[in-house]
Amino acid sequence: MIPYVCAFTGSCLSSLSYSFAKDISLRFISWVCLFSFLFFPLAFRYKIGTDYANYTQILETAFMFGYIPSFEIGWYPIIVFIKFFHLDLQFFFIIPAFFSVLIFLYVVPPKKILFCLPVFFCFSWINSFNIVRQAFASMIFLLSLNCYQKNHFIRALFWGIIAFCFHKSAFLLCFLLIAAHFIRTVKNTYFNVSVFIIIILVFVVGKIGFRLFNAFAGYTPYAVYLNSEFSKQANLGSGLGVLLKEFILLLFLLSTQDGNDENFNKENNIVRIFVFMMGMAIALSAQIRILGRMANLFDAIYVYLIVHMTFASLRLRKIYLIFIFLIASLLFFKTVVGSPSSARSGLGVFPYQSIFSR
């Protein structure tokens, strides 16, 4: 548990120093420390994360028989690079970890980093220990949203396509981006909140997830999971985690009140569309195990939503941010403790092990 506590607290303290230090040297040192706290635990983990053994086994077999694994095309240069220079297989985890942290620090303004760290740790960072390819694609899509925020729609599409090259599920993110660009949502915040709550209740109480999965999974990449243990009822536990995640999304939705900033008002539209989709994905993940991967596709979007909220001209904005900070921090440590590497459920990240102990 100590490595995770150190990574979290060290990142928060470093972000404060980086955000408010006036001396250039101190800012640089703070940035390096912040990068290190985020990068090293993620890049140099060993035999933790339920997919770690799968990836190493696939790569070992592929290199032994001289072929490239059938991953998405974006991974080919990385795998060829590792093979050509006879690098350790650990570089398959080091390279995406390096670029994921760089993307996070590039996209988030310095004075907003502290607010973003809990959701980054809770969603993107911790899930990168397990769903490496999808988590990296989600982080790349963060660049797409960053371009959209700056009114560069073509560049946003470009980075959306790049994300798709690293995981095919990113197609859904690209589709939502295009839809948000052309479709206008209702601006009334209280109407949207009411509809959001009704939809989530219908999805959960009506167990729509099973009906949708059985009806449409055969036409999607999830077809391979039909009639497997992954298509069974999700182990929901107390359901507290699901409720807290939905509550976070509700706060994001409440922050989409239009103000005097036209660019902010335009972004409210894409926020509403993504929040609705994320809420439904979480509701579905609470019903069927494999649909948790669908919810994880939106992990990096939380960072974008936090950045967007910090620009809102709301009287309760700071209260919302504090609530999200505390809830995301709680969920992060709850996820770590609830994911022992000895169990077959969860992320398998506790206790932490590094490659230096192998």
**Poorly predicted runs of 5 or more residues:** none
- Give the terminus-to-terminus CA distance: 19 Å
* H and E string: HHHHHHHHHHHHHHHH
Q: How many strand elements?
A: 0
What coarse outline follows from CA principal-axis ratios? Answer: globular
Average pLDDT reading: 88
Biggest β-sheet: count, sense, barrel?
Answer: none
Strand content: under 5%
- Rg, rounded, reads 20 Å
Structural class: mainly alpha
Q: How many helices in DSSP terms? A: 16
What percentage of residues falls in helices of 4 or more residues? 55-70%
Describe the secondary-structure layout.
Layout: H1 2-20, H2 24-43, H3 52-65, H4 76-84, H5 91-107, H6 113-127, H7 132-149, H8 153-166, H9 170-182, H10 189-205, H11 208-216, H12 240-254, H13 262-285, H14 292-296, H15 301-310, H16 317-337
Structural description of this entry:
- Helix content is 67%, strand content 0%.
- With 358 residues, the chain is mainly α.
- It is globular and about 60 Å long.
